[in-house]
DNA sequence: GGACTAATAT
DNA sequence: GATATTAGTC
């Protein structure tokens, strides 16, 4: 029974798409037209070599002299309407980003991050950093986290035999309810109601790297985790936030998915935790959802 | 002021 | 129903 713990993660890890599988996809959606329209050239690419092997930590500081994509550039309200000239320039900071769609893969990554952090330390900012998905904002994560917590709550209620409510005989097994959530296994320790950092389940998060002088407020554990996440110089997963805006390649360069594939020496140690969370690509889909809203879909390549 | 959560809006 | 946005709080 206890073995299940190491089991679930092992299985889970296996399920995780390998770096190879994850890389592709990316701008496949950027049609030649778009590229032309924006004068985008596929020179090599600007993204960092990313020799980072294990943890998906990264230092989310755009300011780096990378020359990579600045956090957010213009985002056009209507991508299709190149002519609109809305954001071609660089105003855009104020424009709204496309609605994010949580694909199963993206959600999986999310769960992975939460699992690694432990529900207690799993707060939007930290999760976001761990996921290191470009274009993903704290708000995105916060919103999703809110829903996810609700889901966990429900799960607990159901499995706890509480069932008092009109559950009837419904057990977790038969709940097609949250399709998305159901798509990813919920780490057992998440259901047990938050343990603490000291829990035997902390994957990486080397406290040794604490170098951030956090101010006050909030528990140190969270800060520690965050610091660890942010304070890893060598681990630079994928960091470029250029979501939803094909339009303004900061450097006028776009990296090619296939070209940019980072070689991730996924070395798995005995430890069940610490899967390498590679990189995700985003992809913009103009769905005429609401009065001309666009839908942003960050999706990984590889399938599940 | 930043970040978190819960509530509410779209 | 899924996300985004707002509001209150720490």
TrEMBL record:
Residues 1-25, 41-91 are annotated as: Disordered. Residues 102-153 form the HTH myb-type domain. PROSITE patterns: HTH_MYB (PS51294). One of its GO terms (cellular component) is nucleus. Coiled coil: none annotated. It is found in: Nucleus. Its main location: nucleus. Pfam families: Myb_DNA-binding (PF00249). Keywords: Nucleus, Transcription, Transcription regulation. SUPFAM superfamilies: Homeodomain-like. Residues 1-14 have a biased composition (Basic and acidic residues). This is Transcription factor MYBC1-like.
């Amino acid at each position: 029974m206890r073995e299940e713990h190491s089991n679930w993660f092992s299985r889970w890890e296996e399920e995780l798409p390998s770096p190879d599988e994850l890389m592709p996809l990316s701008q496949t959606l950027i049609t030649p037209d778009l590229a032309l329209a924006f004068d985008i050239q596929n020179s090599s690419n600007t993204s960092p070599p990313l020799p980072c092997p294990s943890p998906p930590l990264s230092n989310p500081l755009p300011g780096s002299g990378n020359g990579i994509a600045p956090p957010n550039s213009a985002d056009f309200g209507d991508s299709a309407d190149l002519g609109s000239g809305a954001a071609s320039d660089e105003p855009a900071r104020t424009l709204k980003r496309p609605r994010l769609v949580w694909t199963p893969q993206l959600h999986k990554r999310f769960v992975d991050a939460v699992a690694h952090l432990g529900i207690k330390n799993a707060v939007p900012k930290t999760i976001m950093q761990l996921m290191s998905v470009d274009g993903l904002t704290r708000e995105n994560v916060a919103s999703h986290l809110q829903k996810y917590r609700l889901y966990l709550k429900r799960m607990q209620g159901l499995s706890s035999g509480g069932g008092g409510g009109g559950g009837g005989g419904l057990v977790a097994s038969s709940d097609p309810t949250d399709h998305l959530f159901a798509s990813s296994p919920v780490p057992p320790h998440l259901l047990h109601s938050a343990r603490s950092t000291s829990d035997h389940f902390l994957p990486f998060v080397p406290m040794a790297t604490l170098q951030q002088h956090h101010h006050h407020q909030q528990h140190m554990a969270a800060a520690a985790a965050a610091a660890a996440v942010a304070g890893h110089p060598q681990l630079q997963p994928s960091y470029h936030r250029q979501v939803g805006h094909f339009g303004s390649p900061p450097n006028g360069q776009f990296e090619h998915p296939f070209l940019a594939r980072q070689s991730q020496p996924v070395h798995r140690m005995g430890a069940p935790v610490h899967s390498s969370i590679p990189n995700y690509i985003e992809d913009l889909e103009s769905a005429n959802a609401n009065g001309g809203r666009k839908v942003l879909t960050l999706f990984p390549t590889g399938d599940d």
